[in-house]
Amino acid sequence: MTPVLLLPAGMLAVSGYLFQHLRGQRWRQAHQRLATLDDIRSLRQLLEKIPQHRGMANAFLQGDASFGAKLQTQQQHIDADAHILTRLAGQTCCRVVSERIQRIGTQWSTIKQELQHFSSPHSFALHSELIGEILYLINDLSEKQGLLDEDSGFTPLANAAINRVPLVTETQGQARGMATGAAAQQACGIPEQVKLRYLLARTRSAIGMANDELRGNVEARGLGDSLIATEDFLRLLETRILETQRIDIPPTEVFAAGTQAIDRSFVLLDQLIDTLRQRLAADATRCKHQWRLSQIIATTLLAPAAWLVWLAV
Q1: Residues 6+ apart with CB under 8 A from 131
Q2: Least crowded by CB within 10 Å, which of 30, 87, 205, 245?
């Protein structure tokens, strides 16, 4: 028996195992990032439809009864898209994500059941809090799976798709909701004017940062349309809501103008998500090929390891 041969045999076996294990781990992480992005794509539907519900509710609670039937239809659409929350809750998530999912479900249920008893400001605040929770959930999922890691190779594309553009759609949505309510009342008080001007400035800032990050990139082909539509909507709010003695624009026109701008931003967001998904899929495929190659190498290393063990005994 030659025990000294057991050391190199063990080193070969362990090296092969660790090599294929690390490659396998990288493939599983790449695959999970891809699955997480698909979950984010589903949550993106809620980011579009809940702000629409907020704007409709704001106009309805401020006297425009024509939005009543639209609210019922919109609630049905949101309930259908909210099934993603049930699926996420059934996954093995960290505690923060699980608690946030539960809060989102509770908040939406409260809004649906109690909406007619809310004041307009209270309804707007609850909707905005709910949307904020969804934005945080998207960020939590992204950070948990490493989508936003600087060494992942997917920034600034991932940051624009996960943080920048969703923020643009939300500030646009808040501006649309507040302005629609002001048009319904044909008045915009000083507190509402301050808030609305803040939202206009924040929207311009957020889309400006997205422009800086994506300028010159092929995935930003929809950025120009989004910039134009957003600025057109903000100017309408300035001239027809904020800088006029009497608001005479119909709330449906304000809502439609805001929706057009938001739709352009969502077109951009979808383009960014699609491009990011293509890159994640390519990375997952590459990692899977490397893992399979590492398995072959690991198996190859077992042959001399086994031979050395045979010699040792």
Answers
A1: 47, 50, 51, 54, 170, 173
A2: 245
Tell me how far apart the 2 most distant CA atoms of the chain are, in Å: 100
The total domain count for the chain is: 1
DSSP character string of 40-66: HHHHHHHHHHHHHHHHHHHHHHTT-GG
The CATH number given to whatever domain includes residue 253 is: 1.20.1630
CB-hemisphere CA count at 13 Å for 201? Answer: 6
Contact assessment for residue 232 and residue 40, using Cβ atoms and an 8 Å cutoff: no
Residue with tokens 């893992």, as numbered in its chain: 291
**Containing structural domain, residue 251:** 3-148+156-312
What span, in angstroms and rounded, lies between the C-alpha atoms of 278 and 275?
5
How confident is residue 131, by pLDDT bands cut at 50, 70 and 90? Answer: very high
Distance CA 61, CA 50 (A): 16
User: Would you call 284 exposed, middle or buried from its count of C-beta atoms within 10 A (0-12, 13-18, 19+)?
Assistant: buried
Residue 148 phi, psi (nearest 5): -100, 5
